[in-house]
């Protein structure tokens, strides 16, 4: 399947890149960050579940169909022009928690896993679901951030890239794997990783947006987002978690002072700036966009739209004005027959926002 995806990318990539670069060059330097609309990927790091493992899981639970998608490498996505990434991180303070996924014993693997042994090292790990959906383009957050920094250095004038992070934990699964619980200390270490491996100079921080305003929300409601000229070559990071994790991250940092990430805070609180509204039919999105907030929504979910060739949700996302639209299908599926593939007009993944342009 990976080979097939690369063939598709080879066939489609050049024309997509041509259109995208042309569209991005039309975004004027004076345009504020919240007045564009971008398309990016969901679970951007994800490789496919191996066919034999997938088939075995499907006999147990048909809902596994929702995981039947994969992505080309993150850097290939960025080269195509996608400008949102979504990354799941698991804490692994001692190392080795995810070094031998249970799925490797459940069905004999086709491909080897972590031959360099990096999953035995301590630090934040990137994967979707322990033991089941564990194939990833980057095993560690460190290697992912360093790759993003290197790519950005080679493309210093790139349209800013939004990155949404989810701090994953929860109960033990059927294989007995118990994710490490996130704490305030771990969130501090997560911020430190962004500083060490991506670089503060490459991040659009809440402090940068707040400026001289008393709160972050006040700055947002007064259109204090940086311009394209100020944002080019940078990344804006958002924590996609609610309480108690959001409170862990904001405690001691009013209006996210000193923090690297924005949070999914509701209107009316000092930290409100970026919000998740995953259903593009949500009638509140347009009003939130007009007020100055940045909104993330989804064009598709669980492979459903792709299996039905249904663009309704994507059309609603475009019209909503949500600045960030995520998809699993900037390229067609390689697992089932479908023409579902999304982009803006002309094959671009960046355009002026239709609501507040």
Written account of the structure:
The protein is of the alpha/beta class. 33% of the residues lie in helices and 13% in strands. It has helices at 2-25, 51-60, 74-80, 103-106, 141-154, 184-198, 206-210, 216-221, 228-231, 245-250, 284-291, 304-308, 312-320, and strands at residues 36-41, 84-90, 125-126, 161-168, 235-239, 261-263, 274-276, 294-298, 324-327, 350-352. Helix 5 (141-154) runs parallel beside helix 6. The model is unreliable at 1-23 (pLDDT under 50). Helix 10 links the parallel strand 5 and strand 6 (261-263). The strands form 2 sheets. It has a 5-stranded mixed beta sheet with strand order 7-8-9-1-10. A 5-stranded mixed beta sheet has the order 3-2-4-5-6. It contains 13 helices and 10 strands.
SSE diagram, text form:
Layout: H1 2-25, E1 36-41, H2 51-60, H3 74-80, E2 84-90, H4 103-106, E3 125-126, H5 141-154, E4 161-168, H6 184-198, H7 206-210, H8 216-221, H9 228-231, E5 235-239, H10 245-250, E6 261-263, E7 274-276, H11 284-291, E8 294-298, H12 304-308, H13 312-320, E9 324-327, E10 350-352
Parallel strand pairs: 1-9, 2-4, 4-5, 5-6, 7-8, 8-9
Antiparallel strand pairs: 1-10, 2-3
Helix pairs in contact: 5-6
